[in-house]
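Ticket #4471: structure output looks truncated?

Reporter: J.K.
Steps to reproduce: submitted the chain below (539 residues) through the standard prediction queue, then opened the result file.
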Amino acid sequence: MRVERPFTPMTANQFMERFGIDLDEPKQTKKNSSGSRRTGTGGTPIDSPEGINMAVHFLQEEAPPAIEGEQGNNTTLKVAMRLGDWAISKKRAYALMLEHYNPRCSPEWGPEEMTDIVTHAYKYRGGPVGSALHHEATLSPLAQPLPPPEPLAPFSPKDLPPEQWIIERLLCRGYVTVLVSPPGTGKSVLSLQIAAAAASGRDDLLDLAIRERTRVWLSNNEDNLILMKRRFAGIVQHFILSWDEDLEIEGVSGVSINSGIERPLMMATRGSENKMQPHDVDSVIQYIKENNIGVWIADPFLETHQAAENSNEEINRVAAMYRKVAIECNCAVLLIHHTRKEPRASSVGYAGEMDSGRGASSLMGVARIVKTLYTMAKKDAESWGLEEEEHVNFIRLDDAKSNLYMTSASPNWLKRTNVELENSETVKTGRTSSVGVLVPTDLLQLSSGEIQQSKNDMQIQDTADVLNGQTMTIHAVANMLKNGYSSFSDIKSVAGVEKRLKSLFTEEQTYGGHAIRYVQRSDTNHGKHTLEVKKSGEK
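Returned output as attached by the reporter:
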């Protein structure tokens, strides 16, 4: 137990001058070989204004005070050790401890006692100097000087760079996307299909336009590698993907996966003061940069950190780490996120609602794009001409938030489909493995009745209006229909319109004295995929 004794208050410099105490590091370590100021981890300057501000805040607000009879010596020693994490020198640490921490202790430490504590703390502390400041400075905008505002002079929007879409309306370089979905809906399968679509450039895997082929890294903390590989094999088999032509980019696999069953991805953990601190952030950034990854998928978000899921402050801090990865690596980041608990994953009241995600809402604030993935509601099956029990086979992908484009009220529909895979025992037993894939589906083709026929007739009429009696490429027709005709307005992409036209005109349709049919040509005069127009009755 320490004994409280009175002492005359004096500054750290006065005390050291009076008693001949030197808390400075050796003179030769003050500057490096180039003569510049000493630095800590990540090039962080010793005793920088940012480091001092963070240390002062810690000493005044967060550091536990030393209380007599409650191991106050150990408490103060740990507090002094913590200052080194912000690249604070021993001399500065002594001064800061006396000024900002000592008044909170009961009783206060004498100057000689504080000298001994700081000296021992810096002798035996672990961890690199400046490690916390390095991460704080990169994650917190307040750690950087406030930039001056930019006066807006006349400029042309043509001079501004476009958004770097990888998958239109889903993944964009430099931004975070969140996919919210209940368990069992198919989000892990969809994440693998997203990876295959981005790597292959194939629009038909999602019915969304792929703007850039790029390498994808998928981190899954829930599933083992065998299950992930089996699901991916089902995607390759169903969509007839080539492992070399479709899934290799410049001779290297376009998709990399890892499972967190044995060693999970952990972006943030709790530090010594119970605060969230980066864990795998630097390793993730290094891997993405070294391997030229354009899309990084983390599944699920909930299992990649130790934050309290209902704490907006802690979740915001973790989300900022993902945003840092997206910006620093110029890649698209997709976070797979669980929903709040609701009965049987029904879409009623949840589809298209970003607030359906579980936990703190600050995650949605960081994301620029939010999508929801839900099973079709029973009541919606009848309106699409389906039997009620069929609703479980259909999944809807809805816009919930979009800062980069106009949200759509119409979902993308996907149908659960089983794929039978041969395995290592198939030859012996004849048994196969069954996995699911999600197939983009045009529900207008599945529904029946007068509403459907009216929709078909309107689309045929609009297509004939665009063709105007001339054979044209299906891509050119789709572009014009998507941009100017309401009968196709519920289809999100030009690729989706192309797919609809192929299905609509696989069988010859007659309108206004002309016969229109989808034809895949071997010559290139009209392009490979065309809508061929002939006069009715003409061969």
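Triage note (M.O.): checked the attachment and the full token line is present. The chain has 17 helices and 19 strands.
Status: closed, working as intended.
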